[in-house]
Amino acid sequence: MCKKNYKIGVFDSGLGGITVLKRLLKDLPYEEYIYYGDSGNAPYGSGKTKEEIQDLCTKIMDFLIENNCKVVVIACNTATVAALEYLKERYSIPIIGIVDSGAKIAIQNSSLKKVAVFSTEFTANSDAYKNKIQKYDRDFEVTQIACIEFCPMIEKGWETFDNNQEILGKYINRIPNDVDSLVLGCTHYPIIEDYIKKKFNRVILDPAVGVSLELKKLLEDLDIRNDNKIKKKPIFFITGELDKFKPTAEKFLGEEIEIYRIPK
Ligand code: DGL
Question: pTM of the entire structure?
Protein backbone atom coordinates (compact mmCIF):
# COMPACT_ATOMS: atom_id res chain seq x y z
CA MET A 1 0.00 0.00 0.00
CA CYS A 2 1.26 3.49 -0.85
CA LYS A 3 2.26 5.55 2.20
CA LYS A 4 -0.20 8.27 1.14
CA ASN A 5 -3.06 5.87 1.88
CA TYR A 6 -1.80 5.09 5.37
CA LYS A 7 -3.69 6.49 8.33
CA ILE A 8 -3.25 9.29 10.81
CA GLY A 9 -3.16 8.02 14.39
CA VAL A 10 -4.63 10.35 17.01
CA PHE A 11 -4.42 9.53 20.70
CA ASP A 12 -5.33 10.83 24.11
CA SER A 13 -5.86 9.55 27.64
CA GLY A 14 -9.57 9.37 26.82
CA LEU A 15 -12.17 11.65 25.29
CA GLY A 16 -10.09 14.83 25.02
CA GLY A 17 -8.41 14.07 21.72
CA ILE A 18 -11.75 14.12 19.90
CA THR A 19 -11.59 17.91 20.18
CA VAL A 20 -8.43 17.75 18.07
CA LEU A 21 -9.82 15.05 15.79
CA LYS A 22 -12.86 17.21 15.04
CA ARG A 23 -10.55 19.97 13.81
CA LEU A 24 -8.49 17.53 11.72
CA LEU A 25 -11.63 16.06 10.13
CA LYS A 26 -12.70 19.57 9.15
CA ASP A 27 -9.32 20.73 7.80
CA LEU A 28 -8.03 17.44 6.32
CA PRO A 29 -11.22 15.51 5.50
CA TYR A 30 -9.68 13.05 3.03
CA GLU A 31 -7.24 11.54 5.48
CA GLU A 32 -8.16 8.31 7.24
CA TYR A 33 -8.02 8.49 11.04
CA ILE A 34 -7.62 5.97 13.85
CA TYR A 35 -8.40 7.32 17.30
CA TYR A 36 -7.00 5.65 20.41
CA GLY A 37 -8.59 6.76 23.68
CA ASP A 38 -6.85 5.29 26.70
CA SER A 39 -9.83 5.89 28.96
CA GLY A 40 -9.14 2.68 30.91
CA ASN A 41 -5.95 4.35 32.14
CA ALA A 42 -7.23 7.95 32.46
CA PRO A 43 -6.48 10.38 33.91
CA TYR A 44 -2.89 10.81 32.80
CA GLY A 45 -2.61 14.24 34.36
CA SER A 46 -2.87 13.34 38.07
CA GLY A 47 -1.30 10.49 40.01
CA LYS A 48 1.01 9.20 37.26
CA THR A 49 4.75 9.55 36.86
CA LYS A 50 6.40 10.65 33.64
CA GLU A 51 7.72 7.10 33.17
CA GLU A 52 4.25 5.59 33.58
CA ILE A 53 2.86 7.96 30.96
CA GLN A 54 5.77 7.16 28.63
CA ASP A 55 5.05 3.42 28.96
CA LEU A 56 1.35 3.92 28.19
CA CYS A 57 2.23 6.06 25.16
CA THR A 58 4.69 3.42 23.89
CA LYS A 59 1.91 0.82 23.93
CA ILE A 60 -0.35 3.18 22.00
CA MET A 61 2.34 4.00 19.43
CA ASP A 62 2.93 0.27 18.78
CA PHE A 63 -0.80 -0.23 18.25
CA LEU A 64 -1.06 2.71 15.84
CA ILE A 65 1.99 1.64 13.85
CA GLU A 66 0.68 -1.96 13.60
CA ASN A 67 -2.48 -0.42 12.19
CA ASN A 68 -0.64 1.35 9.38
CA CYS A 69 -0.33 4.90 10.59
CA LYS A 70 1.95 7.23 8.65
CA VAL A 71 1.89 10.01 11.26
CA VAL A 72 0.80 10.17 14.91
CA VAL A 73 -0.79 13.19 16.56
CA ILE A 74 -0.53 13.23 20.35
CA ALA A 75 -3.86 14.93 21.03
CA CYS A 76 -3.09 15.19 24.73
CA ASN A 77 -1.08 17.94 26.40
CA THR A 78 -0.04 15.76 29.33
CA ALA A 79 1.25 12.99 27.05
CA THR A 80 3.00 15.59 24.90
CA VAL A 81 4.79 17.02 27.93
CA ALA A 82 5.70 13.60 29.34
CA ALA A 83 6.51 11.67 26.19
CA LEU A 84 6.87 13.63 22.91
CA GLU A 85 10.69 13.76 22.94
CA TYR A 86 10.91 10.23 24.36
CA LEU A 87 8.74 8.82 21.55
CA LYS A 88 10.48 10.83 18.83
CA GLU A 89 13.77 9.18 19.82
CA ARG A 90 12.23 5.71 19.58
CA TYR A 91 10.02 5.79 16.48
CA SER A 92 10.86 6.76 12.96
CA ILE A 93 7.41 7.97 11.89
CA PRO A 94 6.63 11.67 12.40
CA ILE A 95 4.93 12.53 15.70
CA ILE A 96 3.17 15.84 16.37
CA GLY A 97 2.50 17.16 19.89
CA ILE A 98 0.12 19.89 20.97
CA VAL A 99 1.93 22.16 23.44
CA ASP A 100 3.97 24.02 20.83
CA SER A 101 0.76 24.95 18.98
CA GLY A 102 -0.77 26.10 22.26
CA ALA A 103 2.21 28.32 22.99
CA LYS A 104 2.17 29.81 19.48
CA ILE A 105 -1.55 30.54 19.57
CA ALA A 106 -1.06 32.36 22.90
CA ILE A 107 1.73 34.48 21.43
CA GLN A 108 -0.40 35.36 18.41
CA ASN A 109 -3.52 36.29 20.35
CA SER A 110 -2.62 38.00 23.60
CA SER A 111 -2.01 41.68 22.99
CA LEU A 112 -1.42 42.34 26.70
CA LYS A 113 1.12 39.47 26.83
CA LYS A 114 -0.66 38.06 29.85
CA VAL A 115 -2.24 34.65 29.50
CA ALA A 116 -3.65 31.96 31.73
CA VAL A 117 -3.46 28.26 30.90
CA PHE A 118 -5.97 25.73 32.21
CA SER A 119 -4.41 22.27 32.25
CA THR A 120 -3.91 19.06 34.18
CA GLU A 121 -1.78 18.99 37.29
CA PHE A 122 1.04 17.23 35.44
CA THR A 123 1.16 19.86 32.68
CA ALA A 124 0.96 22.78 35.13
CA ASN A 125 3.69 21.34 37.37
CA SER A 126 5.97 20.79 34.38
CA ASP A 127 5.93 24.54 33.48
CA ALA A 128 5.81 23.38 29.84
CA TYR A 129 3.46 26.16 28.70
CA LYS A 130 5.29 28.88 30.62
CA ASN A 131 8.67 27.77 29.26
CA LYS A 132 7.46 27.42 25.66
CA ILE A 133 5.62 30.74 25.61
CA GLN A 134 8.53 32.59 27.22
CA LYS A 135 10.93 30.93 24.79
CA TYR A 136 9.03 32.70 21.99
CA ASP A 137 8.61 35.95 23.93
CA ARG A 138 10.26 36.55 27.30
CA ASP A 139 7.90 39.40 28.16
CA PHE A 140 4.88 37.12 28.49
CA GLU A 141 3.35 36.47 31.91
CA VAL A 142 1.85 33.00 32.13
CA THR A 143 -0.45 31.85 34.93
CA GLN A 144 -0.77 28.06 34.91
CA ILE A 145 -3.84 26.68 36.64
CA ALA A 146 -4.23 22.96 37.32
CA CYS A 147 -7.93 22.06 37.04
CA ILE A 148 -7.67 18.72 38.79
CA GLU A 149 -11.34 17.69 38.74
CA PHE A 150 -12.11 18.60 35.11
CA CYS A 151 -10.80 15.54 33.24
CA PRO A 152 -12.40 12.86 35.46
CA MET A 153 -15.68 14.80 35.44
CA ILE A 154 -15.66 15.14 31.64
CA GLU A 155 -14.83 11.42 31.25
CA LYS A 156 -17.78 10.49 33.47
CA GLY A 157 -20.15 13.08 31.93
CA TRP A 158 -19.80 16.75 32.94
CA GLU A 159 -23.57 17.33 32.97
CA THR A 160 -24.15 14.58 35.51
CA PHE A 161 -22.32 16.48 38.26
CA ASP A 162 -24.53 18.83 40.29
CA ASN A 163 -21.52 20.82 41.47
CA ASN A 164 -19.97 21.39 38.03
CA GLN A 165 -20.68 25.16 38.09
CA GLU A 166 -19.12 25.49 41.50
CA ILE A 167 -15.97 23.65 40.43
CA LEU A 168 -15.70 25.63 37.21
CA GLY A 169 -16.16 28.88 39.14
CA LYS A 170 -13.38 27.94 41.53
CA TYR A 171 -10.84 27.80 38.69
CA ILE A 172 -12.19 30.79 36.75
CA ASN A 173 -11.69 32.84 39.94
CA ARG A 174 -8.01 31.96 39.89
CA ILE A 175 -7.50 33.71 36.55
CA PRO A 176 -5.86 37.10 37.20
CA ASN A 177 -7.97 40.11 36.17
CA ASP A 178 -5.33 41.51 33.83
CA VAL A 179 -5.08 38.34 31.71
CA ASP A 180 -6.62 38.81 28.25
CA SER A 181 -6.61 35.19 26.98
CA LEU A 182 -7.13 31.71 28.34
CA VAL A 183 -5.44 28.73 26.68
CA LEU A 184 -7.27 25.42 27.02
CA GLY A 185 -4.11 23.44 27.74
CA CYS A 186 -5.88 20.10 28.11
CA THR A 187 -7.70 18.62 25.14
CA HIS A 188 -10.65 17.61 27.31
CA TYR A 189 -11.56 21.22 28.04
CA PRO A 190 -13.02 22.30 24.67
CA ILE A 191 -15.79 19.76 25.43
CA ILE A 192 -16.96 22.15 28.17
CA GLU A 193 -15.98 25.35 26.34
CA ASP A 194 -19.59 26.61 26.26
CA TYR A 195 -19.73 26.38 30.05
CA ILE A 196 -16.37 28.16 30.38
CA LYS A 197 -17.52 30.92 28.00
CA LYS A 198 -20.52 31.68 30.18
CA LYS A 199 -18.24 32.49 33.10
CA PHE A 200 -15.23 33.94 31.28
CA ASN A 201 -15.87 36.54 28.60
CA ARG A 202 -12.33 37.16 27.43
CA VAL A 203 -10.54 35.28 24.59
CA ILE A 204 -10.47 31.47 24.82
CA LEU A 205 -7.82 29.67 22.76
CA ASP A 206 -7.83 26.05 21.58
CA PRO A 207 -4.39 24.75 20.46
CA ALA A 208 -6.04 22.23 18.09
CA VAL A 209 -6.11 24.84 15.30
CA GLY A 210 -2.32 24.94 15.21
CA VAL A 211 -1.99 21.15 15.30
CA SER A 212 -4.08 20.88 12.19
CA LEU A 213 -1.92 23.44 10.34
CA GLU A 214 1.23 21.64 11.46
CA LEU A 215 -0.12 18.30 10.27
CA LYS A 216 -1.11 19.71 6.88
CA LYS A 217 2.35 21.19 6.37
CA LEU A 218 4.06 17.97 7.42
CA LEU A 219 1.98 15.84 5.03
CA GLU A 220 2.75 18.25 2.19
CA ASP A 221 6.46 18.53 2.98
CA LEU A 222 6.82 14.73 3.04
CA ASP A 223 4.51 14.34 0.06
CA ILE A 224 2.30 11.85 1.93
CA ARG A 225 -1.05 13.64 1.75
CA ASN A 226 -3.82 11.24 0.87
CA ASP A 227 -4.99 12.21 -2.59
CA ASN A 228 -8.05 9.94 -2.71
CA LYS A 229 -10.98 12.31 -2.52
CA ILE A 230 -13.05 9.84 -0.50
CA LYS A 231 -14.13 10.62 3.04
CA LYS A 232 -13.71 7.67 5.40
CA LYS A 233 -15.14 7.63 8.89
CA PRO A 234 -12.60 7.53 11.72
CA ILE A 235 -12.38 4.31 13.72
CA PHE A 236 -12.20 4.50 17.51
CA PHE A 237 -10.37 2.11 19.84
CA ILE A 238 -10.74 2.70 23.53
CA THR A 239 -9.53 0.92 26.64
CA GLY A 240 -12.39 2.01 28.93
CA GLU A 241 -16.15 1.62 28.97
CA LEU A 242 -17.98 2.22 25.70
CA ASP A 243 -21.14 3.54 27.34
CA LYS A 244 -19.22 6.42 28.91
CA PHE A 245 -17.18 7.34 25.84
CA LYS A 246 -19.56 6.81 22.93
CA PRO A 247 -22.42 9.24 23.79
CA THR A 248 -20.09 12.14 24.63
CA ALA A 249 -17.95 11.54 21.55
CA GLU A 250 -21.01 11.32 19.28
CA LYS A 251 -22.54 14.44 20.77
CA PHE A 252 -19.32 16.40 20.32
CA LEU A 253 -18.62 15.14 16.78
CA GLY A 254 -22.26 15.31 15.75
CA GLU A 255 -22.33 11.84 14.20
CA GLU A 256 -22.47 8.15 15.05
CA ILE A 257 -19.06 6.55 15.50
CA GLU A 258 -17.56 3.10 14.87
CA ILE A 259 -15.93 2.07 18.13
CA TYR A 260 -14.20 -0.97 19.62
CA ARG A 261 -13.06 -1.73 23.13
CA ILE A 262 -9.50 -3.10 23.47
CA PRO A 263 -7.55 -4.28 26.52
CA LYS A 264 -5.85 -1.60 28.57
N1 DGL B 1 -6.53 15.37 27.63
C2 DGL B 1 -5.31 15.36 28.32
C3 DGL B 1 -4.50 16.61 28.16
O4 DGL B 1 -4.62 17.27 27.16
C5 DGL B 1 -5.15 14.73 29.66
C6 DGL B 1 -6.26 14.54 30.59
C7 DGL B 1 -5.88 13.54 31.66
O8 DGL B 1 -5.89 12.35 31.36
O9 DGL B 1 -5.55 13.95 32.79
O10 DGL B 1 -3.69 16.93 29.00
Answer: 0.97
